[in-house]
Specification:
Elements: E1 4-8, H1 13-24, E2 28-33, H2 36-48, E3 52-57, H3 63-76, E4 82-85, H4 101-126, E5 133-137, H5 150-171, E6 176-180, H6 198-209, H7 215-227, E7 232-233, H8 237-248, H9 250-259
Parallel strand pairs: 1-2, 1-4, 2-3, 4-5, 5-6, 6-7
Helix pairs in contact: 1-2, 1-7, 3-4, 4-5, 8-9
């Protein structure tokens, strides 16, 4: 049976990869994204794969724009089966002393506040589904925090915390929650790193190129975890074992990370 799927940041990268999997299942898909050209192209791609997709251009950092987008969704659908809170940016990758308040605000507005806002606004539609599920896209950076990533890591750690709370609150209503924490893989995330952090952007791009997984593979792993009702999804094997090491022996993990 066709499901009703909403994906933020669904016009490119991981969001589009998630949408492709659901399109092949014949699902109904709403993608929310700020880029109109990418959004329209994504709709054509998804419909060619067998999906039934729609695109809404919206700035997820605007509470008013979010409400307008949600109004359009609920005027079209009576319920939502799956919500993927995927949209996010890297922001500044630099030492804390080089950062400004607005750098933190920009990243948290999209990476955290938008996820909380959309989930809250869509709860009535999720409650109308027989098997609703919320999947929040965090990052291994929220579990394994490296130097110069204080803003991004803090935002993703907050997403993990939010997801843990939602798991408890929504579980009572039989609404599933998954939080996915992928490591580096090839996306456009590095493009959101400001020009003044050019060296950091280059380093991130190199790490993405070395990833053993591509966006389609990561998307498949995340969707399988959501299908199975798995809470924590760690797609990358090496980083998954590093997280296990952190839990068992934090000092050993920090010694290892300083050598990387």
């Amino acid at each position: 049976m066709s499901q009703y799927i909403l994906i933020t940041g669904g016009a490119h990268g991981l969001g589009l990869a998630l949408a492709k999997v659901h399109a092949r299942r014949g699902d109904q898909i709403f993608i929310l994204d700020i880029n109109p050209e990418n959004g329209q192209q994504a709709v054509r791609t998804l419909n060619a794969l067998g999906g039934h997709s729609r695109f809404i251009q919206t700035d997820l950092t605007s509470a008013q724009a979010c409400r307008q987008a949600i109004d359009e969704v609920i005027s079209t659908w009576s319920h939502i089966d799956r919500l993927y809170n995927n949209a996010g940016i890297a922001g500044r990758i630099c030492k804390l002393e080089q950062q400004q308040d607005e750098d933190w605000q920009q990243v948290f507005e999209l990476n955290l506040f938008a996820q909380a806002r959309l989930t809250r606004l869509l709860l009535p539609q999720l409650r109308q589904s027989a098997k609703a599920h919320v999947t929040n896209i965090a990052s291994m950076a929220g579990l394994l925090c490296g130097s110069h990533t204080s803003i991004y890591s803090a935002s993703k750690a907050a997403v993990i915390a939010l997801s843990e709370v939602l798991q408890q609150e929504l579980g009572k209503e039989k609404i599933g929650v998954t939080v996915a924490c992928p490591a580096f893989f090839q996306t456009a995330l590095a493009h959101s790193i400001p020009k003044q952090d050019a060296k950091a952007r280059l380093a991130v791009e190199k790490l993405m190129q070395r990833s053993p997984l591509n966006a389609d593979e990561v998307a498949t792993i995340i969707i399988e975890a959501s299908d199975q009702g798995q809470f924590l999804c760690l797609p990358h094997r090496r980083e998954r074992w590093m997280w296990y090491l952190k839990r068992l022996h934090p000092g050993a993990l920090y010694s290892l990370m300083r050598k990387l």
